[in-house]
Design brief:
The complex is a heterodimer of chains A (288) and B (296). With 288 residues, chain A is α/β, with parallel strands linked by helices. Chain A contains 11 helices and 13 strands. A 6-stranded mixed β-sheet of chain A has the order 5-6-7-3-8-9, with helices on both faces. In chain A, helix 4 packs antiparallel against helix 5 and helix 5 runs parallel beside helix 6. With 296 residues, chain B is mostly helical. Classes of the chains: A alpha/beta (288), B mainly alpha (296). Chain B: It comes from Devosia nanyangense.
Chain lengths: 288, 296
């Protein structure tokens, strides 16, 4: 697909003898907001690092038509990323950072970055080393939003932040940054907090993609059923992919089942992303 | 244009990160020198100038200025050693590798900017500071000649001529020294990229081990100390010989920069210098390849 922002084929990565990624294949079209979700050690960050040219790999990765490992510097003109909000250079003041980025990055606007910080506690004369973690996140977000990039990659951007900062972070991202020309790829463990903004979802488990689909298809394909004990056997007959007991009731997740048939057995609904995550990522399906 | 701005930004970045060692601390030394000179004059502690038996205030100024340059260059050499041992791994240590890798700058350019800052920008700052201390020293000598009428005050224009001659010689000497010692600086920087601050001892330990292994392998059949030791000892020294420095000290004629620059150029082993530059470039390239594969 030539129109894809990211095109990955047979992506493998070894650390020593251990294979971390087992041949991933996916495309990311422009204008979408992707969530890459997985357990710790599932291979999310390694996948992102391969896409950002930060690590070598086997297979083919094309980002904006470039091989990221060969041409990382060139690619970074059109790709922005946050991998760790604590990675900003601590010896600089905020205004020194903006002035420097203005010279280094052809698509960075110091004026825009300053505008994004208006109304926050991050002042231009502040030394970055003295900023709190929340302020660092605000500053880093202002920096990447001031880059006119086509792809923005956020790897656990709100890790360690409190709920107000996290909500403000994502709201700002949606309101001030996203356009039809831009693509956003986010990894986070706090899946419920980003569910509202995602257009597509990818679940990665043990180095394999186990789910990759638009959010609207999730509702069509997966159904969550809350069923009482007396209808349990009837529900099991419809072959759930996951089941667990909550407060005396059984919650099941079905893949491709007829929702009307399920509704006749219990309370059927679209699973939340976190419920689907648990259902698809658990090693024990709980069905038996 | 953007490329030039980008280089400028990277040099400024290094300057901002290491300005304490290369600007603030030297300025502190200048302040201390000024205070000690003022107190020496104020408390009449400059009688020692008679002991040198140099009636020419100009000669006192020239020798003093040369010694000041030598001391500043010694300071530069030490701080450069620590800079190269520190700066090349600073992004990893500061956890800012991810941030710099998100910029459209290659790892080679990043390391080259660190090298150029250490080998051009910081020495330039030290030269300016050394020149300022030279001017301060002229004022000191001028006041001293008033206190000790036996000394003849150099005319400002004559002193300015000497100041220019010595500064020109010092700058040429510094540039050639930086080119001569480029492989050593690159070696320390390259090791720092891989081993962090351990590069400081390793810069000497690794060649030392090679020398030991060579001596064991040759079992005393090679030259004294071994071939590697012989080469490194010879490669370590650069500059004018003792005769030249003796001439500077004893001659009554004003300092002649052109003569000593010609002597310096004549004494330089150009093949070794060029070979060293090729080695430095290779080390920087290898270091950039290593850095390219590191994200923390």
């Amino acid at each position: 697909m030539t129109s894809s922002i990211v095109s990955v084929r047979g992506l493998k990565k070894h650390f020593g003898r251990m294979e971390i990624l087992h041949g991933l294949d996916f495309d990311i079209p422009p204008g979408r907001i992707y969530g890459l979700i997985g357990h710790n050690g599932a291979g999310k960050t390694t996948t992102l690092n391969a896409m950002l040219g930060l690590t070598s790999y086997e297979g083919s990765v094309q980002v904006l038509g470039e091989d990221p490992y060969k041409h990382r510097a060139r690619l970074m003109k059109d790709v922005a990323f946050i991998s760790d909000v604590a990675s900003l250079p601590r010896f600089l003041k905020v205004r020194e950072l903006f002035a420097m980025l203005d010279d280094i990055h052809p698509n960075f606007s110091a004026e825009k970055a300053g505008g994004f910080l208006d109304g926050t506690d991050v002042k231009p004369g502040a030394l970055i080393a003295n900023l709190s973690k929340g302020m660092l996140a605000q500053l880093h977000l202002a920096v990447v939003m001031a880059i006119d990039a086509r792809l923005l990659v956020l790897d656990e951007p709100t890790l360690g932040l409190d709920i107000t900062y996290r909500k403000r972070f994502y709201r700002r991202l949606l309101e001030d940054y996203m356009t039809a020309d831009r693509t956003l790829l986010i990894t986070t463990h706090q899946v419920d907090e980003i569910e509202f903004m995602l257009s597509d979802i990818m679940f990665i488990r043990d180095g394999n993609l186990v789910l990759h689909m638009p959010m609207e298809e999730v509702g069509q394909r997966y159904t969550q059923l809350v069923v009482n004990a007396d209808r349990l056997e009837a529900a099991k007959a419809l072959k759930p992919i996951f089941a667990e007991t909550r407060f005396g009731q059984t919650v099941m997740v079905f893949d491709g089942a007829d929702r009307e048939a399920l509704a006749a057995i219990g309370a059927a609904a679209t699973p939340t992303l976190s419920d689907l995550f648990v259902a698809l990522m658990s090693r024990d399906s709980g069905v038996n | 244009m953007l490329s030039l701005k980008s280089w400028r930004a990277l040099l400024v970045r290094e300057y901002l990160e290491h300005r304490v060692a290369f600007l603030y601390f030297p300025l502190g030394i200048v302040l201390l020198l000024a205070l000690s000179a003022a107190s020496a004059l104020g408390f009449n502690k400059i009688r020692f100038m008679h002991e040198f038996a140099m009636p020419s205030g100009l000669k006192v100024f020239e020798l003093g200025y040369l010694v000041l340059f030598a001391l500043w260059f010694a300071y530069l050499a030490v701080t450069q050693f620590f800079y190269f041992g520190d700066a090349f791994s600073a992004d990893r240590r500061n956890n800012s590798m991810f941030f710099w890798k998100s910029m459209p700058v290659t790892d080679l350019k990043m390391l080259a900017s660190k090298y150029l800052t250490g080998a051009l920008l910081f020495p330039a700052i030290i030269v300016v500071i050394a020149a300022v201390t030279g001017l301060m020293f002229y004022l000191f000598v001028a006041v001293a000649t008033m206190v000790y009428p036996g000394l003849i005050l150099p005319l400002p224009l004559t002193a300015l001529g000497s100041f220019g001659q010595i500064t020109a010689f010092a700058v040429v000497h510094l540039v050639l020294s930086l080119l001569w010692y480029a492989p050593f600086l690159a070696w320390v920087g390259g090791l720092s990229t891989v081993f962090g601050r351990w590069s400081l001892p390793l810069a000497f330990v690794i060649p030392g081990l090679i020398v030991v292994v060579e001596n064991i392998a040759l079992f005393g059949t090679g030259p004294r100390g071994g071939y590697v030791w012989g080469y490194l000892s010879q490669r370590w020294h650069y500059g004018l010989g003792e005769m030249d420095y003796g001439q500077i000290a004893v001659t009554t004629a004003p300092f002649d920069a052109l003569y000593f620059i010609q002597r310096l150029l004549h004494e330089t082993d150009w093949l070794a210098l060029v070979t060293g530059l090729v080695f430095a470039a290779a080390v920087m390239w290898l270091a950039s390849q290593y850095r390219r594969r590191r994200i923390n």
